[in-house]
Design brief:
Blueprint lengths: L6 H10 L7 H25 L6 H12 L4 E3 H8 L3 H13 L3 E5 L7 E5 L1 H21 L5 H22 L1
Antiparallel strand pairs: 1-3, 2-3
Helix pairs in contact: 1-2, 4-5
Length: 167
Amino acid sequence: MDRESDAVCRAAKSLGRQYPGADLTTIETVVTLLRMQGRLVRSLDERFRPFGLTAAKFDLLMVLHRAPSRRLTMWEIGRHLGVTRTNVTGLVDGLERDNLVRRLPHPEDRRSLLAELTAEGEELVHRVLPETWSWMDDLLDDFSLDEKHQMLRLLRKVQARLGARAE
């Protein structure tokens, strides 16, 4: 879908024209990022569906896979994923039902729980990764390495700005 055919982007720019000082390029950029994020998540969800996963569940598995001893507190998971405790609980509930994650009592803090990646969860991560990396390579195949580095630099700049505003 090109930018001119995106009805949401056109509507946002049209409304932006009604406000003096509104930067239409900024409006188009932010709306395009939002729309792209939604399309990326939907596309990943479709790819993960045959494995019983969503993009959010896969992200949680990846975070646990990278963690020391393959376990983290619920609070740490939320911090890594940038989601609320309620979201973490829902994700862990689903992954625990599928035997991909298990909850454990925290050895030093009775009020805290750990989520731990199970052997089945680890096996699933390794089964899903090759297809996921291939899809990502295909998605950005038309970009040179320099263009990918430039895009990453610009996206990280926006991400840093968002992080600064959240504090």
